[in-house]
Amino acid sequence: MPSGFFITLEGIDGSGKSTQARRLAAELRRDGRQVVLTREPGGSPGAEEIRALLLEGPPERWSAETELLLFTAARRDHLEKTIEPALAAGQTVICDRFADSTRVYQGITRSALRSRVDQLHEMMIGRDADLTFILDMDPARGLSRALARRNGEERFERFGEQMQHRMRRGFLALAAEYPARCVVIDAERDPDSIAREIRDIARARLP
Ligand code: ADP
Ligand code: TYD
After folding, report:
1. How many angstroms does the Cα of residue 61 sit away from the middle of ligand 2?
2. Among 14, 66, 75, 112, which is most exposed with the fewest C-beta within 10 angstroms?
3. What would the pLDDT profile of 105-159 be if each residue is shown by its tens digit?
4. What ranges in the chain are assigned the alpha helix state H?
5. Which ligand 1 atom is at minimum distance from the Cα of 149?
6. Which atom from ligand 1 is nearest to the alpha carbon of 12?
7. Model pTM greater than 0.85?
């Protein structure tokens, strides 16, 4: 049985990750691949319950440390129940956010927790994607797109625009840190052009 391929999409809130994750899943299914489309926080029943704890309520509800533990707990469940079984069955997994979001949001932007983020990742998760698209765009535009959705999950968006600037810089720094895995995509274009670029890169890298 061939081992599967793990693709993640990362970037600031409102950068178009969910839109592009859906489109990439549709393209790869048209190519005849078996695709599991999933997201974080969430992606398994237990992790979806943790998602509500994390994304609803006021920004000060959790410290960065508590958040790190909750995101890691959710990721561990998601990995056990959804991602690893699909990869073991040879499927392509497309995940809207994964460990890079923790490296940036908990590791860099809220406080200097990056070494703890890395330690926990090593101990409890132990794997990264095979290919990561980092959707890059102007933070003010991303934030206005994200807030326009009004789905009650705005706890992180409420940290404000300055934080979005730090997150953007954080994602670009990660792309430089993991150049073999990460591809930065200009996300300030029409959705069709972005989808074509992502599809072509994914096709070239897929086994
Ligand atoms: P994310 O998952 O990164 O938060 P979404 O895919 O949910 O982003 O997109 C946020 C909002 O912006 C949605 O309303 C979506 O329809 C819109 N959107 C996504 N991609 C684009 C694009 N390339 N140009 C304009 N609007 C977009
Ligand atoms: P999500 O619905 O993915 O955000 P959006 O669609 O607006 O990009 O919500 C996830 C929020 O949780 C997002 O603001 C980033 C944050 N987050 C972390 O802080 N750490 C993490 O490890 C993950 C996966 C998400």
Report:
1. 15
2. 112
3. 899 877 789 999 999 999 999 999 999 999 999 998 888 887 777 666 666 666 6
4. 17-30, 45-55, 64-78, 84-88, 99-104, 114-120, 139-148, 161-177, 191-205
5. 14
6. 3
7. yes
